[in-house]
Each structure stands twice: as C-alpha cells, then as structure tokens.
Amino acid sequence: MNELLTAAQMRAIEQAAIDSGAVTGLELMERAGAGVVEAIYEEWPAFSKPDGENEQKPRLRAVVLCGPGNNGGDGFVVARLLHQRGWVVEVFLYGDADKLPPDARVNYEKWCEIGEVLPWEKCTSDRWGRHPLVIEALFGTGLTREVPDDIRNVLLATLNCRRVAVDLPCFINSDTGAVLMEWPQNLSGVSAGHVTVTFHSHKHGHLLGAGAALCGQVVVKSIGLEFCYEAIGATTAEVFPYLIGKLQGQRLSKIPSAHKFTHGHALILSGGPAQTGAARMAARGALRIGAGLVTLGVPPTAQQEVAAQVTAVMLKRIADADALSDVLEDKRINALCLGPALGLGEREANLIRVALESGRNCVLDADALTLIARDKDLFEKLHPDCVLTPHGGEFARLFPDIAAKLDAPATKGPAYSKIDATREAAKRAGCTVLFKGPDTVISDQTGVASVNAAVYDRTVPWLATAGSGDVLAGFITGLLARGFSPVHAAEGAAWLHVECARHFGPGLIAEDLPEQLPAVLQSLSGSDQGNAV
Ligand SMILES: NC(=O)C1=CN([C@@H]2O[C@H](COP(=O)(O)OP(=O)(O)OC[C@H]3O[C@@H](n4cnc5c(N)ncnc54)[C@H](OP(=O)(O)O)[C@@H]3O)[C@@H](O)[C@H]2O)[C@@H](O)CC1
Ligand SMILES: Nc1ncnc2c1ncn2[C@@H]1O[C@H](COP(=O)(O)OP(=O)(O)O)[C@@H](O)[C@H]1O
Ligand SMILES: [K+]
Predict the structure, then answer these.
(1) What is the ipTM of this complex?
(2) Which residues are annotated as a binding site?
(3) Residue owning the nearest CA to atom 16 of ligand 2
(4) DSSP character at residue 488
(5) pLDDT tens for residues 57-98?
(6) Quick one: which of 111, 194, 278, 379 is 20 to 30 A from 430 by CA?
(7) Which proteins does it associate with, and in what oligomeric form (predicted)?
(8) Where in the chain is CATH 3.40.1190.20?
(9) Which is the CATH superfamily of the domain at 3-240?
C-alpha cells in the first residue's frame, strides 16, 4: 500500500473491519503475529534450516519483549508461533498482566500454557548474548509519552542483537516520527531496529522525521484489511499517499504531433553578476524536464556573464519590475521561477509583486521566500497557481508559529507532524507548499498532501549539496509550463529529483541532476511504465 496512515486512521480501519463482522480483533492479532514471523524468515532465511531436528545444532533462541497493550499482544502471538517452529523463546512483560486489553490477555494466557512470562526486572543485559533475535513488542501506535528509563536501558543493551520491532520501534511516535526517548549522542547513527514489521500500511512515523532513520527497514504485512479500505478512506478522508510523485512522473511522455509551445514557456529570473549560477541550473532543469522553451531573465549587469554560459536556454534583459511587466505581455510565458540567488533588495521585491499580480504559475524559492516572509503585502498576493519551496529555515521565516509547533519538544503523542505543518502552511498561503528534506512533504491549499520520502532504499544523502534546491525549483517550473497542476508539478518534480540523485549516486553535484533526467525519463517511458526506476 502506498498510503500513509495515522494511528487513529489505523484504529478506525481495524474497528470497521471488526464491526463488519468479517474478522475479530483476535484474528487480526494472530495475522499480525504471523506476519512478523513471516518477515523474520524472509529477512534471515538461514533460520529456515531445520534447527532443533539436528541434535548437533543448538535450537534457535529469541527473546520477546511484550508491552502492556495490543502491541504486546502481537508479541505473545510471535512467541507462540516461534515456539511452534522449534525456537527457545523467553518472554518478558512490561506491566501488569491483569491490565492487558482483552485480545492481548487471551494471547498472554495461550503463551502461559507453553512457557513462563518473566517480569521486567529480570530483563537484564547479560541475557542478550544468548539470543540471536530480540522481538520488541512494547508499544506500537499506542505510544503516548516518553519511554521510561527501565525500558530505555533494556533497549540500549539490545543494540548489538538482531532486532525486530513490531509495528514501530517502541520509542517512535507513529504520527510524527518523533523519538520519545533520550537517544545517546554517540549512537545517533545507529539504526534502532534491523527490521520493523508493520501492518496493512505505513504509518506516518515510518517516513517522517527521525523515524525513518531508526526503523531499520520497514516491511508491511497485510492482515486482510484491504476489503474495507474504501469505506474507511471515505470516512477518514485524510489518507496521504507517498511516492505519488512517481505517478506524476509517468505522465511525462510528449504527444508526437505537439510543437514546442504546446509544452509551455518558462521564465526564470536570475540574480546579478556572480549570482547567476543558481538560476542557470534551474533553467537547465526546466528545459530537461520538458518545458518547450526556457528563458532566463537577467539584469543588464549580468547579461554578458549569462550569455557566455547558455545555449538552448534563451536570454532576456529584465532590468526592473516594469521590464518584467513588458515581457509578460507575451501570454505564452506560462510559468515563472523567482528566488534562486535572486537578491533581497527592493528591485527583487517588486519583481515578485509583478510576477504574482500576473496570475501566472509561479515557483517561489530561496530569496523570494525570504522577501515574502518580510512583506505581508507580498504574502497576501500568493494565489493557487503558486508553489512555495521552503527548506526548514525558510519555512520558519514564513510560518514562525507553525514551525514552533512542529519544533516543540516531543513528549507525547499524538502530536503535530510535518504533514500537519505543511497542510496548515499551504492553507494559510493559499497555494501549494513543498517543505523540503529527506521527508519532503507537499500539500496544496485544500489539504491534499503527499510525502516524497527519500528514505530506506531511496536514501540519497548526496542530494544535500549546494544548488540542488535550485534544480528542484527548475523542475517544478518546467512541469508547470508543461501544464501540470501546481501540486502535481511539485510531486512529480520532487520524485524525479530523488530519482536523478539515485541514478547518479555519490559524488553528485547539483549540475549533474538535470543531466540524469534523460535516463530517468527513458526508463519511465519504457514498456514497464517506470517500474524499473
Ligand atoms: N487494534 C487491533 O485490532 C490490532 C492492533 N494491533 C497492534 O496493536 C497495537 C496498538 O495497540 P494499543 O492501542 O493497545 O497500543 P500499544 O501500542 O500496545 O500501547 C498502549 C499501551 O502502552 C502504554 N503506554 C503508552 N506509552 C507508554 C509509555 N511511554 N510508557 C509506559 N506505557 C506506555 C499505554 O498505557 P496508558 O497510556 O493506557 O496508561 C497502553 O497500556 C498496534 O501497534 C499493533 O501492534 C495488531 O494486533 C493488529 C490488530
Ligand atoms: N539528506 C537528504 N536526503 C534527501 N534529500 C535531501 C537531503 N538533504 C537535502 N535534500 C534535498 O536537497 C534539496 C536541497 O535544497 P536547498 O536546501 O534549497 O538547497 P540549495 O539552497 O543549496 O539549493 C531539497 O530538495 C531537499 O529535499
Ligand atoms: K513495538
């Protein structure tokens, strides 16, 4: 599934399934536990060897850490299923067995018929050496507050073991990806779970914030809830897709009979002398992504510099806001990009004013965002055909109160997420907002949102290089010129941006990004419709 769910949405889906009479909570828990065991054998095929039947070989050993809710219930199922497959399993319970919720209690009792449930106090680090596998079923979507020290100490002691987190690592808020546990500085790069096995669909916390770096890899197992998905989607109405940019990317083929103006004309405004590289990279991106024509608007003082360095991109002198108005008399110019190294003076503010008043598609990045943050009047001129592309610092300048909510120390859940923040910002700005990062979130003013997650097998840390944001602004502008709606242009561009970085690999510099587009686009137009990308 490509949908991202909050804890509340997941609960609603489960409840609807149970209410329909098609399945019980106990059956769902059994399927969840079976999904975890299946994932364990997929991840470590060596476990499938018939250990236990061979007298020479020791039996496989696991420890299961069960929490006080239904996540713990899943843990008891896993313990039983592993035992059935010949494992030696030790089970610890954090909390009071008498207070377990009903389904978890049933599975606790089933386990008690097989083996012992050890109290948490006995869960000491000297036990880990004997276990090839630690299954953490302490808290899942029900984590509501910081993880207590007696759990933290145990978790830190397991870091050298093979680990499986059930649903989510117990210290990650499922709605925000925030870590609700003090994490030692020297372990900041350590993944806290080799594998996280979740059910039905990803949760926000698997992709947002620190969550992605600490889940290890995420395996999604079906627990048979697909049949009620539509009904729930309609009632919850806020199910966000991720990787949807791929779908937008797949719409990029050009009609054989079309001419260049069919694909739009993008105008990208450059900064002054020695400040022209950013706009040139954006222009290259817009052209490569398929805009029919791309013009760089340059201040007269930078004309020579830019002319010496462009070929397919055209050039236009734009001295000031009046000159921009004149250029925009050409109605074929249908997408503008302002911001990359544009400058922060009055001239630039006036250029932005004219661009916004023209009502054209408009990407506002970098310096343009700073100018809009400074000038309420400019902010109010934003309209639905604009796309704002802030990184964290620019977002905080534009929406300080929203950023403060997002940055508030994570002490409880459910909490305010990057998706919530981007949706609120887009609503306030009245346009599409693309909030950058490895977890880029895109939302339009109506609340439609998606996440372009550059995590797990799409990790591209080398994209954090000077100027890559300028290229992204160019990609979005090019797609706007080609007629994509603002939100689809932002989604498609963000997805292609990451694909270009993946295609190039380490050593990437921003100039390389547009040059990867031919190969990436080629693979999209192939017979497999992009599945290979
Ligand atoms: N519903 C279903 O049908 C299915 C659900 N499934 C599974 O259930 C999981 C959700 O179960 P859940 O809602 O019971 O929440 P869960 O994550 O076990 O935690 C709640 C408990 O933890 C406690 N607690 C929280 N934070 C704490 C802290 N920091 N420190 C200490 N305690 C803390 C909290 O205490 P309380 O806040 O009530 O005092 C409560 O006791 C889900 O992730 C999936 O694995 C699957 O089987 C599929 C079918
Ligand atoms: N660690 C990372 N993984 C994936 N993408 C990243 C990472 N860091 C930054 N990016 C992406 O790189 C781009 C950087 O843009 P920006 O911060 O505006 O840089 P610049 O101003 O130098 O162009 C954004 O698209 C952002 O999402
Ligand atoms: K867990």
Answers:
(1) 0.95
(2) 70-74, 140-146, 167, 278, 391, 436-440, 469-470
(3) 469
(4) H
(5) 678 999 999 999 999 999 999 999 999 999 999 999 999 999
(6) 278
(7) Homotetramer.
(8) 245-250+260-382+464-521
(9) YjeF N-terminal domain (3.40.50.10260)
